Amino acid sequence: MKGKVALVTGGTGGIGTEICKALAAAGCKVVATWLKGVDDGEGWLAKRKEEGYDFMIAEGDVSKYEAAGAIIKEVEAKLGPVEILVNGAGITKDGFFHKMKWEQWEAVLRVNLDSVFNMTRQVIEGMRNRGYGRVINISSVNGQKGQAGQANYSAAKAGMHGFTMALAQEVASKGVTVNTISPGYVATNMVMAIKEEIRNELVKQIPVGRFAKPEEIAWVVTVLADDRSAFITGANIAVNGGMYMS
């Protein structure tokens, strides 16, 4: 992976940050996307520089096709073609379906699923033509088993893996792999901010008896991005501590 350009959407988030670090440690030139009004990209970049990382950030709304294209053009102009794409951008807008508003449905599908099309569509031809590429989609255990109150999120995350399986078949002969990672509950700042009694109930659902560490998800990303993983494609790697098995 040394010297390859890796683009991570949602790269300034809890899991995304560890993915960026892990890919950098593997020798990649790493770019994280961020969105004004939602993330503090500049502050994130400053912290990473203090830690010794030399990342690039690219601002834009990956849920919009034109904005996604602008991100990719900026990256290609500064670093070269995107060879590893990690689709990790995501949001939740939970609610029981009989009370769910269209805006909740539309926003989650747009950010979590449309962004996968928007980013991948604009790098896939280059990957095919160069005979190399890695597309890694960050889904969720709830895309596998479903979750009450998350019809929108579960649908989007399940759709990500349907996309993975279809595209993997199209590009397998071109040296491009497409895979999904489905994490369970991960100990990000957002999850750890949940009330302790609720967190304890969540942990009871996990046979391993704890939340995942963000770096454990990031490690699986580096495995799938590695040149030695060229025979893994169309897979959905569950990283959920045994919470859901199939």
Tell me what the structure shows.
With 246 residues, the chain is an alpha/beta fold. It has a single domain (5-185, 213-236), classed as NAD(P)-binding Rossmann-like Domain (Rossmann fold, 3-Layer(aba) Sandwich), CATH 3.40.50.720. Helix content is 46%, strand content 15%. The protein has helices at residues 14-25, 41-50, 65-78, 102-130, 142-145, 151-171, 189-192, 196-203, 214-225, and strands at 5-9, 29-34, 56-59, 84-87, 133-138, 176-183, 236-239. It has a seven-stranded parallel β-sheet with strand order 3-2-1-4-5-6-7, sandwiched between helices. Strand 1 (5-9), helix 1 (14-25) and strand 2 (29-34) form a beta-alpha-beta unit. The two termini are 31 Å apart.
Number of strands: 7
Q: Over all CA atoms, what is the radius of gyration?
A: 17 Å
CATH architecture group name: 3-Layer(aba) Sandwich
> Briefly, what CATH class?
Alpha Beta
Mean pLDDT: 97
Structural class by SSE content:
alpha/beta
What is the distance, rounded to the nearest whole angstrom, between the alpha carbons of the first and last residues? Answer: 31 Å
Give the topology string: H per helix, E per strand: EHEHEHEHEHHEHHHE
User: Major β-sheet, in short?
Assistant: 7 strands, parallel
Q: What would CATH call the homologous superfamily?
A: NAD(P)-binding Rossmann-like Domain
Low-confidence regions = none
The DSSP helix count reads 9
Number of domains: 1
Range of helix content: 40-55%
- If you consult CATH, what is the topology? Rossmann fold
Strand order of the largest sheet: 3-2-1-4-5-6-7
Categorize the overall geometry.
globular
Strand content: 15-25%
